[in-house]
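User: Here's a structure from my thesis project, written as structure tokens. My advisor, Dr. K., wants to see whether a designed sequence matches the one we expressed. Can you design one independently, without my sequence as a hint?
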């Protein structure tokens, strides 16, 4: 009987640890997807934006903004580039 209680406690602890670790993995996966999408959009804007005079330099700050915020970040960079 004592071993059964320890087994149940171990299983519940394992489930709790897996649930706690799953949340940061979702956040990291979302940041990774946003980063890749933002960088690809930044490159596309630079390739196709040359004809209309839009060029966003690919530096650490612009990659960070595009990576964290994704599409809205790239739109912010385009608007910021046009007005400033």
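Assistant: Designed independently from the structure alone:
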């Amino acid at each position: 009987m004592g071993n059964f209680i320890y087994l149940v406690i171990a299983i519940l602890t394992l489930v709790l640890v897996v649930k706690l670790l799953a949340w940061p993995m979702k956040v990291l996966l979302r940041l990774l997807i946003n980063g890749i999408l933002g960088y690809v959009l930044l490159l596309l804007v630079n390739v196709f934006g040359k004809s209309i005079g839009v060029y966003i330099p690919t530096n650490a700050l612009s990659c960070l903004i595009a990576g964290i915020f994704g599409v809205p970040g790239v739109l912010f960079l385009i608007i910021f580039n046009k007005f400033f």
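When you compare it with your expressed construct, this may help: The chain has a mean pLDDT of 86.
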